[in-house]
Write a sequence for this structure.
C-alpha cells in the first residue's frame, strides 16, 4: 500500500491540496486563492475554470515539494464548498456562466415566489431544507432562465450540472474525454432536489423547478472509487472520497456517533450534530442533511446550523474598511479594549441563515457612541461569531433533545484565543480544539482511505482524534445573559431591510 493519502480542499476563497500520512500527520500542502466576483450587491460568483486551474496547480506543487510520485498516493478525497452551482458543456468543458456561490442572493425573488404556495418549509419534508437563496435548485433555475441559450442547450442534453465536487471529479477523470459525472449524497443533499430518504433525485421537484433531469450526476456514497485521475502529477491515483466541506469536518473530528457535534469557523460558521441513521426534521430553523455514507453502509444524517458570515467578516474589516493589515491582526486589535463597549455587529451581508432564515436582513452595527473605537468594532466582529454559534447550538439542543456538554471546533479561527475563550464564556461550555486541526481535508482523506483499504475501519480513525487545547468558561451568568440579550436586540434591527 502507498504510504500517503491526498485531499483536495476546494473552499470558498482558496483551493488546497494536502497529503497526509496514515496517522493524519500533514506531509505537504499547497494553497492558492481565487478571485471573488461581485457583479452587483448580494451577487457572488467564482470563475469555475480558475478553480480548476488552481486545483491543477496546487496538486502539482504539493507533490513537487516533497518529490512525491503518483505511486506514493493511495487515493485522493475531495471536499468542497457546498451549494455553489456550475453548468458546463459536456463536449468542451466550458462553463456557461460563472459559478453562483452559496452566498449569492440573486434568487431572493424566487424564494418569495415559491414560498407563496405552502410557505418556506414546503419542501422540508422531502429535502430537510427551507426555501432560501442558499441552495442549488434556484441557482440552477436562474442560470436556465437568465443566460441566453442555456435552457435550450440543457434540454438538448448538451450541459452538465454539478456543485464544485462534481466539476472537479469530472475534470480530474478526463473531462470531455470520459470524465466521470458523479456527486456524493452529502453534496446532493444541499441542492434541495434530493429526497433525503431515498438518496435519489426527486422527479417531482425537478419538474416543479423546471430543471431537466439530464443535467444531473449520479449520486454515489461518500467513500468509493469513482475513477482514476488523469493529471500527470497524480496519474492513475483513485479518486475515492467526496464530502461537502462541513460533513468532511464532522468526519475529520471523528463524530461518527449520534449526538456528537462539531463547529467549523471558516468563511461562514457551521455547527453539525450527527443524528444517526434517521433524518431529524428541524422545528427550530436548522437544516437536515446527510452527514456521510461510507460504501454500502446506511447513510448517517445530521442537523446543521449555518451562519453565513464569520471569518468573512474579518476579511471585510481588512479589505473594505482597512482596519487591519492581515486577518491575524484582528485579535490584537480586539484585545486593545476590555469589552465590546456596547457595540454589536450583525453581519447579515447575505441575509441571516440559521435559525432565522431572513433573506431580506442586512448587516447592522448597533450600540455606537462616541466612546466606540476600532478596537470595539474588532471585538464586536469576533463576538458576532460566538453569539451566532450560541443561537444555533440552542436550536440544535431543542431539535435533538441532546444537551451538548462540550463543543469540538476546527477551522481557521480556532487559533484566535480571544474568540475561543469568549465562545466558551457565552456558551457556558468547554470548547475543544483537536490535535489535528486540518479536519476538513482530513475528513476527505479518511473517506478516500476507507474506500481503498488505507484505513481498516472507523475505530482506527476514532483512535487518532486527540485534544490539543480546552477553553473553559469563566464568565458570570449575569454578564453572559446581558450580553446575549443585547445581541438578540441587535439582530432584530437587521430584519426586513430589503423588500
Amino acid at each position: 500500500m502507498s504510504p500517503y493519502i491526498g485531499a483536495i480542499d476546494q473552499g470558498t476563497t482558496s483551493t488546497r491540496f494536502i497529503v497526509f500520512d496514515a496517522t493524519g500527520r500533514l506531509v505537504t500542502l499547497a494553497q492558492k486563492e481565487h478571485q471573488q466576483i461581485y457583479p452587483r450587491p448580494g451577487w457572488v460568483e467564482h470563475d469555475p475554470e480558475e478553480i480548476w486551474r488552481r486545483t491543477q496547480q496546487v496538486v502539482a506543487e504539493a507533490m513537487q515539494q516533497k518529490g512525491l510520485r503518483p505511486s506514493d498516493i493511495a487515493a485522493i478525497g475531495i471536499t468542497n464548498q457546498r451549494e455553489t452551482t456550475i453548468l458546463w458543456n459536456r463536449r468542451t468543458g466550458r462553463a456557461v456562466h460563472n459559478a453562483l456561490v452559496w452566498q449569492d442572493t440573486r434568487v431572493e425573488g424566487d424564494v418569495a415566489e415559491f414560498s407563496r404556495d405552502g410557505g418556506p418549509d414546503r419542501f422540508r419534508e422531502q429535502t430537510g431544507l427551507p426555501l432560501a437563496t442558499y441552495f442549488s435548485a434556484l441557482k440552477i433555475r436562474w442560470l436556465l432562465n437568465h443566460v441566453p441559450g442555456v435552457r435550450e442547450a440543457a434540454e438538448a442534453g448538451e450541459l452538465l450540472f454539478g456543485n464544485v465536487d462534481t466539476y472537479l471529479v469530472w475534470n480530474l477523470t478526463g473531462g470531455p474525454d470520459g470524465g466521470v459525472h458523479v456527486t456524493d449524497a452529502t453534496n446532493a443533499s444541499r441542492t434541495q432536489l434530493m429526497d433525503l430518504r431515498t438518496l435519489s433525485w426527486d422527479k417531482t421537484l425537478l419538474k416543479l423547478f423546471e430543471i431537466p433531469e439530464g443535467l444531473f450526476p449520479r449520486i454515489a456514497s461518500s467513500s468509493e472509487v469513482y475513477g482514476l485521475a488523469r493529471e500527470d502529477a497524480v496519474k492513475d491515483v483513485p479518486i475515492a472520497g467526496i464530502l461537502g466541506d462541513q460533513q468532511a469536518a464532522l468526519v475529520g473530528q471523528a463524530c461518527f456517533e449520534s449526538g456528537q457535534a462539531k463547529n467549523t469557523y471558516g468563511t461562514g460558521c457551521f455547527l453539525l450534530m450527527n443524528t444517526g441513521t434517521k433524518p431529524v426534521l428541524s422545528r427550530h430553523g436548522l437544516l437536515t442533511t446527510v452527514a456521510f455514507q461510507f460504501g454500502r453502509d446506511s447513510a448517517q444524517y445530521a442537523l446543521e446550523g449555518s451562519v453565513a458570515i464569520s471569518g468573512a467578516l474579518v476579511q471585510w474589516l481588512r479589505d473594505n474598511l482597512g482596519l487591519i493589515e492581515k486577518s491575524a491582526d484582528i485579535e490584537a486589535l480586539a484585545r486593545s479594549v476590555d469589552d465590546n463597549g456596547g457595540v454589536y455587529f450583525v453581519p447579515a451581508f447575505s441575509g441571516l441563515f440559521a435559525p432565522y432564515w431572513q433573506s431580506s436582513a442586512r448587516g447592522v452595527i448597533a450600540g455606537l457612541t462616541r466612546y466606540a473605537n476600532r478596537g470595539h468594532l474588532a471585538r464586536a466582529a469576533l463576538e458576532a461569531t460566538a453569539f451566532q454559534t450560541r443561537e444555533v447550538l440552542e436550536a440544535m439542543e431543542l431539535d435533538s433533545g441532546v444537551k451538548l456538554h462540550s463543543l469540538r471546533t476546527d477551522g481557521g479561527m480556532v487559533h484566535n484565543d480571544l474568540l475561543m475563550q469568549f465562545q466558551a464564556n457565552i456558551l457556558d461550555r468547554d470548547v475543544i480544539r483537536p490535535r489535528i486541526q486540518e479536519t476538513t481535508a482530513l475528513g476527505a482523506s479518511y473517506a478516500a482511505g476507507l474506500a481503498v483499504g488505507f484505513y481498516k475501519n472507523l475505530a482506527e480513525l476514532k483512535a487518532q482524534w486527540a485534544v490539543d487545547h480546552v477553553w473553559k468558561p469563566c464568565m458570570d451568568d449575569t454578564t453572559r445573559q446581558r450580553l446575549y440579550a443585547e445581541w438578540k436586540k441587535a439582530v432584530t434591527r437587521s430584519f426586513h431591510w430589503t423588500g
